[in-house]
Amino acid sequence: MRILFNIAHPAQVHLFKNVIWNLEKRGHICKISIVDKEVSIQLLNEYEFEYTVVGKERNSLFSKATELLVIEKNLYRLARDFKPDVLVGGVGNAYVAHVGIMISRPSIIFDDTEHSKIERLLTDRFATIICTPNCFKKDLGRKQVRYNGCHELAYLHPKYFSPNPSILNEIGVSERDNIFLIRFAAFKAAHDIKSHNFRPEFIMPLIKKLEKKGKIIISSETKLDPHLMKYQYSLSPDKYHSVLYYSKMYIGEGSTSAEEAALLGVPSLHFERLTINGEPCGITPYIGIIDVLQNKYGLLYSYYDELKLLSKVDELLLDLDKTKKQWEDKRNKLLNDMVDVTDFIVQTIEKYSQ
Questions:
Q1: Which Pfam family is one of this chain's hits (predicted)?
Q2: 276: enclosing H helix or E strand
Q3: Are 167 and 243 in contact (CB under 8 A)?
Q4: Where are the domains of the chain?
Q5: Closest to 116 measured CA to CA, from 257, 288, 260, 346
Q6: Minimal CA–CA distance to 240: which of 215, 224, 217, 223?
């Protein structure tokens, strides 16, 4: 069986890496195409994957639209030569869905982002099936296949992920020390149009609270101000999840890293402020996995008010060891409840490529 993957976001490198390795062990031939975005190429290089670049991330809606045509032209040519039995993509991968129609092959989309309206408009009607977590808040009709899990479990389940303790030496701490990981997002994706960042005047109060208790590391999709550069994450992208695992708390924008922290048993404080009908609001009512991690498992807390987030930081700082143990217990409950997502993806690809 010949499988063509298109990776349009760094998180999809992680989502599909174990899937590709498992499929190849089972005798299938996998080919990777990639849209150059952030650290995607660097991650593929770190994992020693071969790949073909079919396009580049763009920021404005107009440039995204024109680049879509470039990507689809390149992906079509690649697919025509490779002759895949099935095409696979992540959230809102219209390229895979469209090219699948062009070459009369099934396309499978793995989606977990309910508010990606533009991507959904371009993708859903053309995809063969769309796989979503059970907690996904939208009904996508007969094409939707639900499973009891989430994307991040495909690479952070203990079956597939082991932290690398050598990173502690690289960042100058021991396992007994407190690490606090902060992440700032760029919010450049089409589905991020209504999202707003943590306001600058609250950044230093957050830093001062955390710095009294341990080492701060900031991972940022945007350029940091000069006074924050000393905190900047400096390791290679493939070591990020080990740093996250050893952290005593995660505070950040954008949902992916917040979900990853929660699934690693790290207290996760997520910040994202939406504007709906002119009013500020949080993202929890709109994103199923955020809702489940917060309201069912208590692994994550999502805020759109900086002062409330800072208050929660104070609460968690009171006893970091106790908090860490509580989160580990919550994580174990989640792991017992959910499926092996990598295995689900492999079985789904094999089923729909026949």
A1: DUF354
A2: strand 273-276
A3: yes
A4: 2-149+340-352, 166-337
A5: 288
A6: 217
Q: What is the pTM of this model?
A: 0.92
- Relative orientation angle of helices 61-82 and 94-102, to the nearest 10 degrees: 40
Other beta carbons within 10 angstroms of residue 329's beta carbon come to: 10
Q: Which residues contact 33 (CB under 8 A, 6 or more apart)?
A: 4, 5, 6, 7, 51, 52, 53, 54, 74, 75, 78
Closest to 189 (Cα-Cα) out of 243, 261, 117: 117
Q: Which fold has domain 2-149+340-352?
A: Rossmann fold (3.40.50)
Same fold, 2-149+340-352 and 166-337: yes
Tens digits of residue pLDDT in 3-51: 999 999 999 999 999 999 999 999 999 999 999 998 999 999 999 999 9
Taking the C-alpha atoms of residue 122 and residue 229, their distance in angstroms, rounded to an integer, is 39
Q: Confidence class of residue 55 from pLDDT cuts 50, 70 and 90?
A: very high
- Nearest CA to 91 out of 47, 142, 52, 35 is that of 35
Name beta bridge partners: 182: 218, 251
If DSSP codes are grouped into helix, strand and coil, which group holds residue 119? helix
HEC string of 33-55?
EEEECCCHHHHHHHCCCCCEEEE
Four-residue CA torsion sign, 243, 111, 129, 158:
positive
CA–CA gap between residue 343 and residue 286 (Å, rounded): 27
The pLDDT > 70 percentage for the chain reads 97
Q: What pairs with residue 195 in β-bridges?
A: 274
CATH fold, domain 166-337, is Rossmann fold (3.40.50)
